[in-house]
Amino acid sequence: MLRIDGLTKRYKTGDQALKNVSFEISGGQVVGLIGPSGAGKSTLIRCVNKLVEPTSGSISLNNREISSASGGELRRIRRRIGMIFQEYALVERLTVMENVLSGRLGYVPFWRSYLRRFPQADVDKAFMLLERVGLSTHADKRADALSGGQRQRVGIARALEQDPELLLVDEPTASLDPKTSRQIMRLILEICRERSLPAVINIHDVELARMFVDRIIGLRAGEIVFDAAPAKLDNAALTRIYGEEDWKHSASEEEDGDPTILVKHPDLQRLEAVV
Fold first, then answer.
1. Dmax over Cα atoms in the chain, in whole Å?
2. 3-state SS assignment for residue 160
3. Which domains does the chain have, with CATH numbers?
4. The pTM is what?
5. Are 21 and 224 in contact (CB under 8 A)?
6. Strand 30-34 vs strand 223-228: parallel, antiparallel, or unpaired?
7. I need a labelling partner for 109 at 20 to 30 A (CA). Which of 20, 133, 228, 249 fits?
8. Contact, 218 vs 226, CB < 8 A?
């Protein structure tokens, strides 16, 4: 279970991205974060694994405190949090298999990652995951030879290679066409069901959120203004989240523009340092 209590983030500029945000997510539940530009969606996701340092409040995963963790304890917690990025965050010159195996960097000694000699059990699991995401014939392809949808599938497999207890997903369909977007959202939902894996998805497409997630949390100016099942996201709720609009004709939202520097996951930085 992910538990967030009183989470607040204020930047050095004085901008307050999150204001006393609190909610819980149980195993297998897929939650979609929606809201206008600057609402705090990306900041919230990055606070959960401390790619952004919260100003105050607490975050815990399965009764392990994240917000106060540091050093080795933080590394141990992070390796159980799978992150899927909008821009895929793959190492382009590596193969699909090597990118998936990078999900084990938090578990293996440095010399193994430097020589790219992962335990056979990790390799076998990577092949299984590539089969699950529909890329079993692409293991030896370079990442830069893949389509956008295929790259996102590699990102999903890499996150699952970590044996995560939580998935954090940052705008997984923003760069994809409508058909591929549905396929990716369906795949994430199916995997979460299979593994009883909770997930938080920052998603800018309201209609996709309505179709695929179990619960929608709407943010506006850093505060939760909606938290309910997708069926309850009516025109009045959309107005609370986004402001006045003719929702009968348009239900689209703007992309998130949080004042957050895009920070690569520490394990990805480690992989790039040795290739």
1. 58
2. helix
3. 26-36+77-273 (3.40.50.300)
4. 0.84
5. yes
6. unpaired
7. 133
8. yes
